[in-house]
Design a protein that fits this description.
By secondary structure, the chain is mainly β. It contains four helices and 21 strands.
Length: 329
């Protein structure tokens, strides 16, 4: 089987899901006026004479569409699961882009998967910008973001990843190396550590509609199981999301199982997976916790046409906790 980490990284690096980019509502503004953290206006000459706004770190990363990322400021390196991370970017136009480009700022886990919403919020007072097709060579853009983690995200270390993409085609722009060579589309700005919040996310925040769990195994409860698609094809990738809870402190480090059952009840594949993430095992859960778990699975390439069932189980319990159907065409 493909490992959980490999599956996640394959999706993150090679199998971009358009939904991530469609949902991003980020944008940039021509730098005729920079708004500092204090709200004070900074004149354009403050950057033109070689000085960056206070708190911004000078960097140089060129994209193949004529835009350079020349400054960044990350908020606190420690973030509670229900808090927001401030990320400020400063762009320079070396030439006018031929299409409208927008930015995304995401939190990416050790498994290569995204643990933040596709879209980011903006600080108060931020105004909608003109499209990048109106930018002229030598102009600057201030691009602030407020990034939050998905409800139920487990504590751990996450990369802060910036991307630049074409608004119409959703194609990412390519980073250019020092010798003019392409070096990928995602830029890791740094990392943050997410810590446990004092508040447990509510049922509504987690999308839980049921009054009770779908299944339980000892102190571990499974509240929801969702697939990212109802139809698929042999050999395709399928994303599975779980919401887990703990009615008491779980004993030991236990794993979940996911079985692919065929129309004739034949087991076509079975995976042993951490319920939430490899870095947040069940022995670190506490009574009353609710956590998000997400995995990418590659289905067998020799599946026949028909309706299959993905069945969630838990080590130590003979009965399945939840089942979801998926059609293979």
């Amino acid at each position: 089987h493909v490992s959980t980490s490999a599956r996640g990284r394959e999706r993150y690096k090679n199998k971009r899901i358009a939904l991530v980019w469609v949902a991003v509502v980020s944008s940039m503004t021509v730098f005729r006026l920079l708004i500092g953290q204090s709200g004070a206006a900074l004149p354009r000459s403050f950057v033109e004479d070689g000085r960056l706004p206070e708190g911004l770190t000078s960097i140089t990363h060129a994209y193949d569409v004529g835009l350079h990322l020349i400054g960044v400021r990350l908020g606190s390196g420690i973030l509670a699961t229900d808090d927001e991370l401030r990320v400020d970017l400063l762009w320079a136009a070396q030439e006018t882009p031929l299409a409208e480009y927008r930015t995304s700022v995401l939190l990416v886990g050790q498994d290569g998967q995204t643990w933040s919403p596709a879209g980011t919020l903006r600080p108060r007072g931020y105004e909608p910008p003109p499209p990048t097709t109106m930018w002229k060579s030598g102009e600057f853009a201030y691009d602030p973001h407020l990034v939050s983690s998905l409800p139920g995200t487990p504590p751990g270390t996450y990369d802060v990843v910036v991307g630049l993409f074409n608004r119409e085609t959703l194609e990412p722009a390519t980073l250019i190396g020092p010798e003019g060579e392409p070096v990928g589309s995602d830029l890791v700005l740094g990392e943050i550590r997410i810590v446990r919040s004092s508040e447990v996310p509510s049922h509504s925040e987690l999308g839980i509609d049921e009054p009770k769990p779908r299944g339980a195994c000892g102190a571990v409860e499974l509240w929801t199981m969702t697939l990212d698609r109802a139809k698929t094809s042999p050999g395709a990738l399928v994303a599975v999301q779980w919401i887990w809870g703990a009615s008491d402190t779980p004993l030991g480090n236990q794993l979940a199982t996911l079985s692919l059952m065929g129309p004739d009840d034949k087991v076509w594949d079975r995976w042993r997976l951490p319920p939430v993430a490899s870095w947040w095992p069940t022995n670190r859960w506490e009574a009353g916790d609710r956590w998000l778990g997400q995995h990418i699975l590659r289905l067998p390439g020799d599946l026949e046409t028909g309706t299959y069932v993905l069945e969630t189980g838990f080590e130590g319990c003979p009965d399945p906790l939840a089942r979801e159907s998926i059609a293979v065409e």
